[in-house]
Amino acid sequence: MAAYSLLMLPGDGIGPEVMRQVRRVIDWMARRRDLEFTVSEGLVGGCAIDAYGVPLSDETMAQALAADAVLLGAVGGPKWDGVSFDKRPEAGLLRLRKEMELFANLRPAVVFDALVDASTLKPEVVRGLDIMIVRELTGGVYFGEPRGIEDLGNGIRRGVNTQVYTTPEIQRVARVAFELARKRGNKVCSCEKRNVMESGLLWNQDVTALHAAEYKDVELSHMLADAAAMQLVRNPKQFDVIVTDNLFGDILSDEAAMLTGSIGMLPSASLGAADANGRRKALYEPVHGSAPDIAGRDVANPIASLLSFGMALRYSFDRSEEADLLDKAVQNVLKGGMRTADIMSPGMARCSTSVMGDSILRELDKLVG
Ligand code: NAD
Predict the structure, then answer these.
(1) Which of 36, 92, 125, 320 could form a disulfide with 3 if both were Cys (CB 3.0 to 4.6 A apart)?
(2) Which cellular compartments is it found in (predicted)?
């Protein structure tokens, strides 16, 4: 059996605390589930600035490019607020995304039964919710040229950004969405603004053409992005996979995240193109940041990071059985009443980061007998 190479970049703030629990689950998988990992660790963000003067060293970047999967904690914190824009902790993360060419960002929004009351929406609207937002991550208005702020004179300035997409950019992210749908509920909803934007019209036509050519077995629908924003809070369970561009995906994925109620529970994956062997560059990270307000106190919720590793098992290592096992262990622990402070509710048992890790490992042991 070939060993999978994992690069762990815990980063700053609560990053190292939550990633410690991930490491324990990686070791458990290696011990109990016939999986072999070679794990290395590196620095990213503020801790890399302190050590090397840059938020990501060339050596760490090379390790990331060579790894089967990168697992990231979080970067940033008030200590580095004063550093220059190009050297800030987040620049390390942006360099990883750019050089690994991670064009597809996957953000699941899953409501665990035990946490159904954490959502601000009515329980009947969100109970059983399981949707996946696929956001295009390297194109569109955040990168398009021309961009900038021009001085037109007489105290008037003009801010410009350009929304631009090409057919290959649209079709490669749509392909990821169709492939994912085949392993889930077999439905894709593509969102754009074709009524007012030519780039939206092209998006719609290219997704439709790809569907007709290669994915007729998947149910495809189209929705204007503003209508999708409304439908996400009105009836989110109508969706399975949503695919959309960088800007709309930024907004819709945050909206979907809030359906679940807690930022400490949200994983994500960012994937690059598949090589000749079908291997994709991939980065897995929780949606949350470094939470400096609670760092170093062993109170952070490690579940977002653990579920991110679950996504690595599913999408980089094709081990959905183990990913399901981890999901089940998390569900059972929550059902048993264990809660970190961020998801605490009356009558539940409040626990620390490490005790949440202990409980999940115990549950994994129980599940495999
Ligand atoms: P944040 O996600 O770090 O924290 C927002 C709130 O959620 C805080 O109250 C925090 O305590 C809480 N929280 C976050 N994760 C939690 C967890 N796992 N368990 C329990 N509570 C949790 O966002 P922020 O406060 O806006 O940013 C803090 C720092 O993180 C900033 O430096 C920001 O730039 C950085 N940041 C990094 C990333 C990343 O690494 N991908 C993402 C967002 C923000």
Answers:
(1) 36
(2) Cytoplasm
